[in-house]
Amino acid sequence: MALDSHLLEILACPEDKGPLLYFEGEGTLYNPRLKRRYEVRDDIPVMLVDEATDVDDAEHERLMAKAEAEGVAPTFEEG
Q: Domain 5-70, what architecture?
């Protein structure tokens, strides 16, 4: 089950307050600015900085390429 679209519109990184990329198939929300991934467990985003995982450059590039290829948009527009 995917996260609710209304929830996605307001989800932000708890550290930098910026938008995230939601990868439904991987069950993660990703902050490309900090290269940090937040897990989605049982359709509940775990938005705790202490439980987030940092990704290396190769994983960052993979996620960004996947976002572009699949049209994954940020959870909201900054501005």
A: Single Sheet (2.20)
